[in-house]
Amino acid sequence: MLFQVRCPWGGGIRKSHLNSKKIVLSLAAISFLASCADAALNSEIKTYDEISKNTKARSASVYSSRNGTNTTINSLQNGQVTITGNETTNSLTIGSNGTLGSIGNNDRIIYTHASNSDTLTLTNLTNNGIINGAVAIQNSKKDFTGTITVNTFENKNQINGQIYMGIWSSSQGTLNIENFNNSGTIAGSSNKGTVFFEGNTNIKSFSNNGLISGDQGVRLSGGTINSFNNNGTISGSSSSILVAGGNIKTLVNSGTIISNGNRNTNAGIKLESGGTIENIINTGTIQSNYTGIVVTYGKFKDLTVKDGGVVYGKYAGIAVGQWQTLGNLYIDGGKDTKKDGTVSGIYGDKYGISLETGSSSQKIELTNGGIIQGKVNGIKLGNAASLSGEMILSGEGSRVEGGSGSGISNESGKITGSIKVEDGATVTSSSGQAISNSGSGSITGGITVSGENTKLEGNIINTGNASIGSDIKIENGAKVEGGLVNQGNGSISGSVQVSGGSSIDSITNTGNGAISGSITVDEDSKLDSITNTSTSDTGISGSITNNSDNKLEISNSGNIGGKIESTGGADMVISNSNGGTISGGISSSGSGNTSISNSQGSTINNGITVSGSAQVEISNQGSVGKDSNGNTVTNNGSGSVGIKDWVVSTDKETGKLDTVVVGGSGKDNVKVENITVDQSNVNLDELGDINNIISGVNQGNIGNIGTNGGGEISLSYDPLTGKLSTDFNLNASISGATFRSLISTTTRRSTFIDNVMGNSMQSFYLGNSSRAQRMAMSEKGNLYADASDYIKSDLNNGNYGSNKEHSLFILPYFSSQNVELSLNEESKGHTKGTIIGYSTLKDSGIYGVYAGYEDTKMSSTYFDINNRTYYAGLKYFNTLLTTEKGQEVYIKAQGKTALIKNDLTKKIGNNEAKANPNSYAYGVNAGLGMNFISNKDIFSPEVGLTYEGGYTEAFSMINTKGEATVMGGERTYANYLNLFSTKTSFTWFRDWLPNLKSSVELGAKLNINPSVKAKARFGNIKVNDEFYLPRVQKFVSTSLIIPVNEAFYFSLNYNGMFDKDGNTHTGFAQFNYLW
């Protein structure tokens, strides 16, 4: 029969088809209405959480103890619907016109529960209407050991509240859900999840084609979801899907999973508390304001993004937290598939994929145009993060993109497998770093870039203590638009291979980096340059082979353990510098031209061999060893070998020359443009035979032969007779450099002191002595007297007030000078000094005395001349006569002496020798001049005669760094200097204002006997020579004079001297005190 109970407010019908014989108590179906019954069916109903455990409800109930109850609600019902019982089967349907709960109700509105060991089955719970409130299917008491089964839960319309299905309080019972389907809207406000599965709950199928929204869209805390399909939208203000301790076997998203929260704990999909998802397939959108997919404590097994699927997070698309696990990641771009214009892939504003400290992943595979993009790093492995499988990036259009960091950045992580970029894929970064392996990072399986249109847009960087444990291969037409940079303590254990028409810009090994394998470039491939500046003992331990037709430049200042070989048609440029070593030698067997430069201190072992048709050019200032046949250079090819310059080194023990031995069938095609003999510790007897320098070569092919010194030893070679002769030039030796420096500083000092002392002695101004006035005005540049007043007054009766008899000054000065220390090389230096002087006026004239100290430093390629000079002198000035027109004739004289303590250095390459002799300088000079007075101007022509004498002690050069002298040593004997010169000058003095005067002097010195004899010894050979000074020396002096008062005046001064061997510029400010 049909049993109905009609509610007084109308419309609500509960229908049960029952056996008429069992109506009364055997099977009761009773509808308690909240408005007409005040007895509670269940006064203590416990919910799944602590907050609602003690909630009491007056409700409408569906109750069955043994048999099934099927209920449909088609009207408004505000009371709670309770379903309970043991071994009962029930169903509940809310019709399209049905409504449970009032708007805004947050309490439980459907309560299905069981306790103890009860078994309860809910075959169907379908909502076609509106549910306002929570839906709870749970155990009602602790220690529940029974089973609750839900065959189908389906929402087709609107649920405004949480759906809770769970076993709480660690009960041992089970909740089984066959199907959970949502095609409507489920909106909740609970922070426990809008759809919340808890405990020992098993969901066979979860399908969302509608909208689920709340703080957490779907939460699984324990239990299992076998199949989770989202074709609708799951939205959360924190995390959209939270798996906290449970397991989802397969999650397929073709819709939208979006987290709108801004906290760093928010994600689209989040694993914590040991949660796992075995398989995610995303063809839709997973998006978050922080992380798209994250595991903070749990494990992902397989994650697949394909067919336009997108994972996006403002921090990272996918983040695997510290010590957590991501299994295999597959990203398939899907040919011509996009979602809202976005290519299928993983996107992050900082990181595309971030494996944090200690996390692990098995395999990352990007195919078919997929994208991994981050504005810092595309893929990042943090400290101790692990990728146990391979990283495979393949297919046209597939891209890993970084920004300010790298495309792929391994920051102290470990990649056990290899990184493969192939079949048109690209790794790029705006910073220029495509792949970065840093810190203690390791890539065990190496790196392979393969296939046409495959590119790395940026460098491969291995830095810090990072290691790459296998080969780096650029093959099959791939391009690296950047270089391989191994730096810091980075190590690359395998080889570097560029093959199959591929290209890479450069290979750089620097810092303490080490490349253990060889470097090979095959035919049709391209490597522009190799630079090795590593300080590691290993450096590049393998060979470098260029089989291509593209030019290769190799720059080495570290160690290359193998051979450098060119076998193709490409040109090759090899530079070995700064102590670099190429242990395996150099071989050119192709047709490309080869240029070899081996600089001072650098080494090429095992010789240089030419066996192709190439043109080879060699420049060697270092050391080149011999091959197994005893040849330094071997030419077995049809090409030619040109030795542009070769420094023949000297054995530091025996003084014998390391002979350049030329061999091979084509040795007659070896041409020598220049050979330089290293004269450091050379045995001069070795220089008598050309075969001690170079042998095997056609002597007619030998050009110039010289030495690497300053020119003191010169070699002359006659190719017709084969005769080699040795000449010595002391002018180019340390002796000549010392002489030129001594003359330069002495002459400059003499002219400079003339100017300074002249200024001081002219400063007197006596009011009642016409003789004193005339004397005070007579020398160039009277620095105190007012010329206009002086000229206008009567010379015999002038009265100027006070008398001044004494003048004192002290001043520092600085000189910049260019002197030819080494022949044909202008050397710059400077002098700093201080001078103090005193002058006094007597009836017999003006007398002056001065003393000073200066420090001079001069440097050139071959010599350093530093000295400290202590000097003193006397000066006298007097007016001889005065003409009727007021013109004056004056005389002046000076005597001087100086002690010069020399610090001499001779340099041959990196070798140095020193000596510290003393020099003594002395001299006298006298001058005669005349003052022509015209209004405010005074013009003073002058002539003079000077004697400059000097003596330098004998000295021997002592080696202090290596061997800078020839075998047997070098000694310069005592040198005497006796020079006479004449001087002419013209001075213009101008009185502009009472407190502004100026003086300009132009002049020249003519050396009468500009030659000096010198003697020295090289080894056992004594040499006599003669030095020559410039015949003419020009000078200029200027002064700007500012009288302060009768006792003080200030002047700014410049003195310059010029000759064919150099120039000197001295500036100083002078302050005089008169009393």
UniProtKB/TrEMBL annotation:
The keyword Signal applies. Residues 396-415, 530-551 are annotated as: Disordered. PROSITE patterns: AUTOTRANSPORTER. InterPro entries: Autotransporte_beta, Autotransporte_beta_dom_sf. Keywords: Signal. SUPFAM superfamilies: Autotransporter. Residues 1-39 form the signal peptide. Residues 530-546 have a biased composition (Low complexity). This is Autotransporter outer membrane beta-barrel domain-containing protein. The lineage of its organism: Bacteria, Pseudomonadati, Campylobacterota, Epsilonproteobacteria, Campylobacterales.
